[in-house]
Amino acid sequence: MTSLTAAPRAHERALAPWRRFLSRHIALVPVFAAAAILVMMIVGAMINFPNFQLPRILSSILLDNAYLLVLAVGMTFVILTGGIDLSVGAVMAFTGILCARLLSEGVPVAVAVPAMIAIGGAIGLLIGVLVQFFDVQPFIASLIGMFLARGLAFVVSLESIKVADEGLLWLQSTRLSVGGGWYITPTGILALLTVVLAALVLRYTRFGRTVYAIGGSEQSARLMGLPVVRTRLLVYVISGVCAGIAGIVLTAYSGAGYPLNGVGTELDTIAAVVIGGTLLTGGSGFVVGSLIGVFVYGLIRTIISFLGAEQSWTRITVGALLLVFVVVQRVIVSRSATRR
């Protein structure tokens, strides 16, 4: 009898450190869940599909979704403050087609690229001003930005504009072999550098701590004397800048600018960020989680292609994952409220 009761106690003692860690770092639970789903999907795909070569597939996912990863980084900043940005897909389309038009008219790539990033930041600043100074809800303010950017994209051109500038196409056409079947393009390097820079900013700067504080409680952040106004403006500028960069990345990837690019991409971006563990209510989340969310999204599309099913199943699967993660988020919020 003693041996029977001793075994469960030993098991509980072994799990105790892990439980304490999770209780102290409950915000990491959704990130761990996303990472676990990614690993299970990879293992399942490798077992069921003999042609599934992990290095090549993951390299391809980064290649195809570099623009989405850049958008997810900017969206993470916004959602961490409790906001939302629906304009990123339209801003990406506008900066992409405007960049293609400028390059076709002989503007140097060294001038066109920074200009697109600045334009993206300007639209983000406009949204931030509407939210902060005119008390417009982020949903409505970013919807205004979305219509503005999409309309400007159609003003630039109603048809696609092909890019012939080698300086821009080099970003996508160059493949650097890493070894063992892995490869990466300059667009992939740019996307990963964006993730690393954003993670460092959120982790080690006062601005990053203020972003989390605003998402946790804006009133408390004000009482602590934190620069709430400046930070709220900057997160939308960052999102706009990321959208401008994504426009350049997508234009290099497709070799053309098109005014209808990015339709619905803002929803894919939000989905990737939420799957990566960032709370929609703000105050909790990590850029690395958004990276995992983008890879989960890309791997779902890849597996569905291997199955030969219609891509509509991608939406269904992502929707199911979103449902799971929203429920997990509600549990986390409830437990955090109970502790207070």
UniProtKB/TrEMBL annotation:
Signal peptide from the UniProt entry: none
UniProt entry keywords in alphabetical sequence: Cell membrane, Membrane, Transmembrane, Transmembrane helix
One matching Pfam family: BPD_transp_2
Record-given protein name: Ribose/xylose/arabinose/galactoside ABC-type transport system permease subunit
Domain of life: Bacteria
Localization terms from the record: Cell membrane
PANTHER family with a match to the protein in the record: ABC TRANSPORTER PERMEASE PROTEIN YPHD-RELATED-RELATED (PTHR32196), INNER MEMBRANE ABC TRANSPORTER PERMEASE PROTEIN YJFF (PTHR32196:SF63)
Annotated organism of origin: Microbacterium paludicola
Segments passing through the bilayer: 26-47, 67-100, 107-133, 139-161, 182-202, 233-258, 270-300, 312-333
Membrane topology recorded in Swiss-Prot or TrEMBL: Multi-pass membrane protein
